[in-house]
Amino acid sequence: MDASLFVLLLLSGLFWSSALCRPYYYINARMSWPEAQSYCRSKYTDLATLDNMGDVNRLISIVDAGYSGSVWIGLKKATQKRWGWSNGENTTSEYYNWASGQPNEGEYCVSTYSGLWHDMPCYNLRYFTCYTGNNTYLIKSAKTWSDAQSYCRQYYTDLPTIHNSVENDKITKIILSGWYIWIGLFLDSWEWSDKFINFFRHWAPGQPSESGQPSESGDCVGMSRTNSGRWAQYRCDLQSPFICHGWPRASVPVYHFVNQSMTRADAVRYCRARFTEMAAVITMYDVRRLVNTVDSGYSGSVWIGLNAVGVKRWIWSIGDSAISQDGMWGPGEPNGDGECVRSFNGSWYDESCSSVLPFVCFNDSAGFVVTETAMTWRDAQSYCRQHHTDLASISSPEQLNLIRNESSLWIGLFLDSFGWSNQWNHFFRYWAANQPSMISGSAACVGMSTTDSGKWAQYSCDVRQPFICYGDDKLIKKQVVRVKLSCNGKCALNDPALQAAILNGISKKLQSMGLESDKKIFWRKGEGGEVFHQEKKPRPSSNNACRKQ
Length: 549
Description:
This protein is 18% helix and 32% strand.
């Protein structure tokens, strides 16, 4: 897997009061969009987010020159529509100057007519305005909104953003009376995977679909390296390379299967003595890695680092966070009725996880999906993970309003009392059916099944079974290897340049054999600081033999 790093240092920016440092990594491995997202979140921050054309050009430059297809970026279909500006700004200023009856929610792009704003189809041909610096220009060439945006970005800066009445009046003075003129406002239904609120878009012609209906072409976004970095919709299960952003995580775990049966306490002591800690799991990508780590001949369960801690927290099934106790609870909730949560008419209520209810899933490509078939919370979770992404995670009252329903619906919130032995604050869980037990006093330690897709179950901590650790193996010691080198004629093996060349050759050979080398190999110097000395033999020889000490 080839990861090419490109570091962007944005010393000043249009929307940032401080410096922004966003490294980009091209991952030359084909994955679906959800798999790519999981990979990026486990190793970096997330799939790539872009702020401006500078970012587009930088992403183009790090994709392999021989690759002509699309690469995944972090944009995906959202669950709500929002007004944004072409240059990437959001509408937090809340300044609008809509004409009476506007917007009518039927169209996606905005023009101004005598200073009043109207939404209309983006494919209409209109004159438009561009800006650069503090100057705004009227372009008397009829184009679609997208073509007008491309023209402004090529010859100026962008379509204009209007923050207040003064700026609106300034544009009104230069436009033609009785004409509809494009401005930079548009209705957007896409969002970045890392939740960064930025409306910069660089769509290819005809993209994205404006019908408001699920697109046959898909609801995840790829960037073309060959088409000036433009974006298009694709099916989320398409296998493509992708680009991540963010600094590498300092603790991407290296897993080690230990095929010795021990109690959970003994396994923890072993992992801490020889490696770092018992295995912790952040994503489904880690689950698959753990399953592949176990010896193929073993088919039982293995200890991982999760165990009951006694402190109960409300967390989301998707594993991204825990919530504060206020949340969006109904009056008097949670009242102890259960350890899973249903949504009813815009509020949350705790409920027994064994209750049978309809539920709402979240899909990375389609947003919220309500399923009317009634299931227990655990069965609903399994269904959502199999057919979508997970049970719905709610982060705002606006999202909760999207699933307002007179009937109760399971959402992804549940009460958790488990924690990782290394104290990592990660909330991803992958329980088997009917696990964990909600009965007080149940087995407090967690094992992973090697046959049930890596799912987890509770066990008595005294059970003896193999286990998985993570971290570097502390028993690997420094090794000193003697090597004899021979040469014909005059030898200059103590020349630093030649020594570096030899060391580089050894390093490459070890790497080709799949062995670690990097900067861990070095010459051992003898007395006088020399690495090599000529070996003396008791009998004459016509060859000068140079040896490594």
